[in-house]
Design a protein that fits this description.
By secondary structure, this protein is mainly beta. Helices cover 9% and strands 32% of the residues. A hairpin with a 2-residue loop joins strand 3 (53-64) and strand 4. The chain binds 2-acetamido-2-deoxy-beta-D-glucopyranose (3 copies). InterPro entries: Peptidase_S1_Elastase_sf (IPR050850), Peptidase_S1_PA (IPR009003), Peptidase_S1_PA_chymotrypsin (IPR043504), Peptidase_S1A (IPR001314), Trypsin_dom (IPR001254), TRYPSIN_HIS (IPR018114), TRYPSIN_SER (IPR033116).
């Protein structure tokens, strides 16, 4: 028993992921709230260059010191991208924050933008330079391959997306508590039906909190046994009826389905 515990602790320490220096304020606040500064240190802002300015378009998260994971639908082959890490307020320079150019983009080969409901909405961004990990920039942990979270498991979606349908985009990173909706429920009629596939994970759908435009590509963070955070989902799509429509939870790419793809 003791040996097992020690081994677990050593492995977690060696991975050095999912364990923020500034732990997030977890709460049951409904509707989204400002995140504690630097408490989701793997959160990235994906930005593209437009007439000399960098614009936030999507979220993402750091999985190695030179790789960021995001959603495939965030990527347009004609654009130039950079990734901003260690940031709380997108509208201001912050010490400890940095911007890194993206050198290579790997979009999942089975992604098809005309068939969003087939899934595979995942892309990897290779950074032009590896970043140094600090107490404000840390790696996300990914779940073991095949992990399925049970219905109602609490997780947090984070991003700089709009707080409500057609609302203003916030400066400050937002977090929202969402409960996982299992595949059986999410794919039932009255919910998403056959639009949702097993390579996706649903969370939310209470009609109050959800991810919204601009959160795309960002992480669904779930606290797991062992005391660390794992990213189980990548924000993929929501309902065109609105950002937090009843029984239309946010739909995420299920990260645990893509561990082999990520590793290769
Ligand atoms: C986080 O929690 C601490 C302690 O409860 C509180 O002082 C702080 O204001 C909270 N920060 C945010 C951004 O909610
Ligand atoms: C974020 O930064 C901008 C620009 O400095 C500032 O105007 C704004 O008040 C900041 N937002 C918050 C919530 O501190
Ligand atoms: C993507 O899906 C569309 C619509 O179903 C199809 O016509 C097209 O051939 C697909 N593209 C690829 C590259 O598979």
């Amino acid at each position: 028993m003791i040996r097992t515990l020690l081994l677990t602790a050593l492995v977690a320490g060696a991975l050095g992921c999912g364990d923020p220096a500034y732990p997030p304020n977890v709460s049951r606040v409904v509707g989204g709230e400002d995140a504690r500064p630097n408490s989701w240190p793997w959160q990235a802002s994906l930005q593209y260059s437009s007439s000399g300015q960098w614009r936030h378009t999507c979220g993402g998260f750091l999985i190695a010191n030179n790789w960021v994971l995001t959603a495939a639908h965030c990527i347009s082959s004609s654009r130039t991208y950079r990734v901003v890490l260690g940031r709380q307020n997108l509208s201001t320079e912050e010490t400890g924050s940095l911007a890194v150019k993206v050198s290579t983009i790997v979009v999942h080969k089975e992604w098809n933008s005309s068939q969003l409901s087939k899934g595979n909405d995942i892309a990897m961004l290779k950074l032009a330079n590896p970043v140094s990990l600090t107490n404000k920039i840390q790696l996300a942990c990914l779940p073991p391959a095949g992990t399925i979270l049970p219905n109602n498991y609490p997780c947090y979606v984070t991003g700089w997306g709009r707080l409500k349908t057609n609302g203003a985009a916030p400066d400050i990173l937002q977090q929202g508590r969402l409960l996982v909706v299992d595949y059986a429920t999410c794919s039932s009629s009255g919910w998403w039906g056959s639009t949702v596939k097993t390579n996706m994970i649903c969370a939310g759908g209470d009609g109050v909190i959800s991810s919204c435009n601009g959160d795309s590509g960002g992480p669904l963070n779930c606290h797991v046994a062992g005391g660390h955070w794992e990213v189980h989902g990548i924000v993929s799509f929501g309902s065109s009826l609105g950002c937090n429509y009843y029984h239309k939870p946010s739909v995420f790419t299920r990260v645990s389905n893509y561990i082999d793809w990520i590793n290769s």
